[in-house]
Amino acid sequence: MLLTDFSIGCEFWTATGRWRCTDIGTRTLCAIKLDGDPRNWVGPPYSAAESVFDECDMGGLYTSDPERD
Questions:
Q1: If we measure between CA atoms, which residue out of 24, 1, 57 comes closest to residue 9?
Q2: Distances (CA, A) of 8 to 4, 11, 30, 68
Q3: Nearest 5°: phi and psi at 60?
Q4: Residue 31 burial (CB count, 10 A)
Q5: In degrees rounded to 5, what are phi and psi of residue 52?
Q6: Nearest to 20 by CA among 55, 57, 2, 46
Q7: How far apart are alpha carbons 32 and 51 in whole angstroms?
Q8: For the segment 18-65, what is each residue's pLDDT rounded down to a tens digit?
Q9: Domain locations in the chain?
Q10: Is the pTM of this model over 0.90?
Q11: Do 13 and 25 contact (CB within 8 A), yes or no?
């Protein structure tokens, strides 16, 4: 995926599971992992920790579950 493929609130997959985009910068995006209690996914602010993905990580992001494809 490319950074231009993302919008705030869109969901995507990595090898570790499902994520939701929470912020987009010029070369990075922030996301929360969608596991555990769904109440943690409501925000901002989020009670789940946000992770940062940079341009080097984009090759490992998918629009659907890679295990199902």
A1: 24
A2: 11, 9, 9, 24
A3: -105, 15
A4: 25
A5: -105, 130
A6: 46
A7: 6
A8: 999 999 999 999 999 999 999 999 988 999 999 999 999 999 999 988
A9: 3-60
A10: no
A11: no
**Residue showing tokens 């996301």:** 31
User: Which of 17, 22, 18 shows the shortest CA–CA distance to 47?
Assistant: 22
Q: CA 57, CA 1: separation in Å to the nearest integer?
A: 9
Q: Cα(34)–Cα(20) distance, rounded to whole angstroms?
A: 7
| Distance (Å, whole) CA 67 – CA 15 | 8
Burial class of residue 4 (count of CB atoms within 10 Å of its CB; 0-12, 13-18, 19+): exposed
- Which contacts of 5-12 are long-range, i.e. CB under 8 A and separated by 24 or more positions? 5/63, 12/61, 12/62, 12/63
